[in-house]
Amino acid sequence: MALTAGTTLGQYEIIEPLGAGGMGEVYRARDTRLKRDVAIKVLPDFLTYDRHRLQRFELEARAAAALNHPNILAVYQMGTHEDQQYLVSELLEGETLWERLRRGPLPFRKVIDYGVQIANGLAAAHEKGIVHRDLKPENLFITNDGRIKILDFGLATMVQPDEADSDRAPTLMLHTKPGLVMGTAGYMSPEQVRGKKADARSDIFAFSAILQEMVTGERTFQKPTSAETLTAILNEDAPAITELAPAAPLGLQRIVQRGLEKNPEQRFQSASDMAFALEGLSDSGTSVVTVRPSVEKSKRRLIGVIAAATILVIAALAYFLTRSIPVPKVSSYVQLTHDGRQKSLIGTDGSRLYLELGTSAQASIAEMSLSGGEVKSIDHVPSPNMVPVALSPDGSELLVVDGHGVPSSGPLWSLPILGGSPRRLGDTAGEDASWSHDGKMLAYTNAGNIFVAKGDGTEPRKLLSVKSQISNLAWSPDGSQLRFDTSEGFDVAGQHLMWEVSADGKNFHQLLAGWHDPPDECCGKWTADGKFFVFQSHSQIWALPRENGLLHREPKPVQLTSSPMSLYSPIPGKDGRELFVVGRTYRGELNRYDAMSGKFSPFLSGISAEYLDFSKDGQWVAYTSYPEGTIWRSKVDGSERLQLTYPPIYAVMPRWSPDGKQIIFFEFPQSSSRPARMYEVPAAGGSPRILLPDDPHHQQDPNWSPDGTKIIFAGDANDAANAASAPAIRVLDLATHQVTALPGSQNLFSPRWSPDGKYILAITSDSTRLMLFDVQAQSWTELAKGSMGWLNLSKDGQYVYVLDFTGAGAVLRTRIADHKTEKVADLTNFVITGRFGGGLALAPDDSPLLLRDTGTQDVYALDWELP
Fold it and tell me: How is 617-666 classified by DSSP, letter by letter?
């Protein structure tokens, strides 16, 4: 859990959170004995029971404590508080090198100065036998007085000394498995990419890449995806510094080139040698010299006066034309709720916050005071399927969708907060909606289209069609523009794009194109003064100014938070002095539902895992760890556990082959430009293999045929481009490698083969119909209707189990023989979590398996400040 101001850890009193640092949460604290401020890093709750992470945390502490150098963060103490490990270190004031580089390249003198300091710090660590292994701009700190500090030895390893030196060198080692990739893509050495042993020369490679970035302002190895970046490190030479910065000293170019050699033997063999080479550049007075022709003294003075006056005029004009809105800051995190329940913020009327509690399967509408306290459900909601999407400008009404399916879609209603009759807004229906700031206009989405109507839902007209899932509509304060998010079939797990369109349907364009890959910008709201658009991206909160000077240059986002928690659902306060967010930590506990007792209990020791699949004999299980996204297999008693996939692959839906020798899965793409891919990996361990590397379409949710000769899989049913060129469901013949289309399978997903091979089950893309395909008759039949997902077949093939998304949620099963549906488990008091919001699996005895949310989600208030 997050520590609050005033919490004491021994002699240290917490003052405020500072953000994330390596594997921990970092706080400013006061050493009450020595009367000094310090930094305290605390390992998050969800990692405290992870033995491997604890080992690495302890190793970081011991590694850093073994070093005493002005260019390395000083560590004072390691301790434990209520089973939480924490590390006490010196408190630094300044910024990281990463933050500095966001403003552009550094002057050459600064590059050399900082480079010498970094090299000296690395040399001190290497002399102690410590290799950093994760050197990057985020781990280099520039203090206010210009000193460099090397941070976060979280991946450090202490190298085994030679016998001759064994009496003086550290011997602590944290062994990693051969082939395990450790580090950060873009700064890893070729030997690290290959999973081989890293030594001091690996740090030199990363340091050289950082040196080049300091000169050019651009990542040395930067490709669209992590996998492509790692491939470039192995096979491509870095671009020459002089190509990107022609004025760069040639001596610096030679130093960097040598440090980036693919073969460690050809690099500098020590950081001390590199420091010496950089100091040589400094001593030589390296600079950019401009030679001016000799002219008469009087003419030089006249030209100088004119030039100076011209420069002053241009500078003054440039200042007034390009000056930016002051950059906002947030501070003083105050936790308002302490229930940990899943929630998202809808809006505020200036005195209360309105929220949606639970998941799409178990949603309710609630409210709370801005000062914190109890979260109260709003009880006068006429339908359990009503989902809140917006608050009226005057705070008197909630805009709700009486929805079904995923995403929830249905008629739009206005729900008075203080009681009264709900009002249907004309004939409008869709998934999301928003009133303009004056309440006169209503925008809403329906099946990839945006409509605009009057505030009461009358006179609707189509504004725009984008053929993607649309969410988070937000009117500009003056009502002239709409901003919204789209997601290309991966709406929950984070590949979101932000767009803007004028209220007349013109000037449709993407916001922040190419800013992040994968793009993950969403859920934006305007501040009360209309100057900033506050949104979330990659688990932190950002602000985008409305404009940037009189020339209306494209504004750049400002990062507001750097929290150890994932922050989302930002809502600016009405008074312009606060910002409300939800802070989340991720953790789950696997539970099994027992039909006899009607209760859930931990399964497989309550591991945080989802997408379970059992071998045909029921002796083995494969699963995806949550939230890490790596596949493991073990025996059902937990023994013989083996990791099968590693980052950067985020692997989901493992499925055992009938003979138990292979496991197939698909990779959730970490870049919007790449389709989902199917892989196969030996159950005994080995390298995953892409099954259809040349197929341009999405390959999701693969499943084996009963005889193991074929694999059935889905495309992206929400992707209009794929649906137009290929059916949603296809079959791969492993003998011939031919892919055939399943007739009539457009807009279907989640295919499952019956154990006897006679039927194929699937769900429609709107999650409202369960369909059965008769293989012999080659025809589809509707088996059940509802709002459902996560299709599973019983072991005997007689029943289909699904997760029901209506009301409080339930597990349902439908008998194939007579289409009869019955409730198996009620989920009223069970909160599900998972990569895609929660899923369903079956144990070998057909007992439902669900991942209970044991993470935390709470509301925080932050002070909003403008200089």
Answer: TSSEEEEEETTT--EEEEETTS-S-EE---TT-EEEEEEE-TTSSEEEEE
Alpha helices in 29-79 (DSSP H): 51-65
Please list the helix, strand and coil fractions of the chain in percent, rounded to the nearest 5, in that order.
15, 40, 45
Location of structure tokens 């090198």: 97
Residues 6+ apart with CB under 8 A from 297: none
Q: What is the CATH number of domain 329-586?
A: 2.120.10.30
Whether the CB-CB separation of 39 and 20 falls below 8 Å is answered with: no
Residue type, 728: A
Structural tokens at position 15: 């003052």
CATH superfamily, with its number, for domain 592-856 = TolB, C-terminal domain (2.120.10.30)
Least confident piece of the model among 219-228, 356-365, 448-457, 509-518: 356-365
* Parts of the chain belonging to CATH 2.120.10.30: 329-586, 592-856
Tell me which of 31, 50, 83, 134 is the catalytic residue.
Answer: 134
> What pTM does this model have?
0.56
Residues 6+ apart with CB under 8 A from 497: 485, 486, 487, 488, 510, 519, 521, 672
pLDDT of residue 297: 47
Region 1-91: CATH code: 3.30.200.20
User: Under a CB-based contact definition with an 8 Å cutoff, are residues 685 and 644 in contact?
Assistant: yes
Question: What does the alpha-carbon distance between residue 460 and residue 143 come to, in Å, rounded to a whole number?
Answer: 57
How many other CB atoms sit within 10 Å of the CB of residue 818? 7
* CA angle, 332 then 338 then 342, to 5°: 105
CB atoms near residue 496 (< 10 Å): 25
Task: Please check whether residue 698 is in contact with residue 722, taking contact to mean a CB–CB distance below 8 angstroms.
Answer: yes
Q: Where along the chain do the CATH 1.10.510.10 domains lie?
A: 97-287
Task: State the architecture of 97-287 in CATH terms.
Answer: Orthogonal Bundle (1.10)
CA count, 13 A, side-chain hemisphere, 742? 32
Q: Which two tokens stand for residue 672?
A: 């919007």
The question of whether 427 is a catalytic residue gets the answer no
- What order of strands is seen across the sheet that includes strand 540-545? 521-526, 532-537, 540-545, 558-559
The rounded distance, in Å, linking the Cα atoms of 822 and 589 is 26
Q: Is the peptide bond before 518 cis (omega within 30 degrees of 0)?
A: yes
400-422 burial code (b ≥16 CB/10 A, e <16): bbbbbbbbbbbbbbbbebeeeeb
Phi and psi for 517 in degrees, rounded to 5? -135, 115
Nearest to 618 by CA among 843, 849, 840: 843
Residue limits of CATH 3.30.200.20 in the chain: 1-91
Q: Give 260's DSSP letter.
A: T
- For residue 669, give both structure tokens: 């793409």
Task: Identify the band that residue 211 occupies on the pLDDT scale cut at 50, 70 and 90.
Answer: very high
What's the CA gap between 567 and 536, in Å, rounded? 7
- Classify residue 181 as exposed, middle or buried by CB count within 10 Å of its CB (0-12, 13-18, 19+): middle
* Gyration radius (Cα) of the chain, Å: 29
Task: From 242, 255, 23, select the one nearest 119 (Cα to Cα).
Answer: 255
Integer Cα distance of 121 and 271 in angstroms: 9
CA distance linking residue 650 with residue 382, whole number of Å: 41
Q: Per-residue pLDDT tens for 254-288? A: 899 899 999 888 899 889 889 888 887 765 444 43
pLDDT of residue 325: 61
The tokens describing 722, both together, are 């794929």
Tell whether the model's pLDDT for residue 323 goes beyond 60. Answer: no
Eight-class DSSP state of 264? G
Per-residue H/E/C for 153-179: CCCCEECCCCHHHCCCCCCCCCCCCCC
Q: Which two tokens stand for residue 743?
A: 């007739």
The answer to whether 17 touches 25, Cβ cutoff 8 Å, is yes
Instruction: Quote the tokens at residue 257.
Output: 């080139």
Closest C-alpha to 824, from 795, 802, 792, 845: 802
